[in-house]
Description:
Elements: E1 15-20, E2 23-25, E3 28-36, E4 41-51, E5 54-56, E6 59-64, H1 72-83
Antiparallel strand pairs: 1-6, 2-5, 3-4
Bound molecules: zinc ion.
Amino acid sequence: MSQPFSCPHCGSHDYSIILTGCDVAGATLQEDFAWNAERGEYSSGGTVILSSESVESEGGSAVCLQCEKDVSEAVAEYEKQQEG
Ligand SMILES: [Zn+2]
């Protein structure tokens, strides 16, 4: 059994990775649209990659879903441990 990642700020195990400037091959993308009655238009939460053959990215950052702090370094450290 492997240990989950823990946020160094709040201890949460949930995080999100945001990749920018991606070079994605064979990807399936999903974008959700929610109707915003106040503004009279659809708002989108952005595009989500459901699956892909490969993702090359130069810039990536990890954000804790609980406290929304940048946990890039902690996640990189965690992933290094998982590789053994
Ligand atoms: Zn946190």
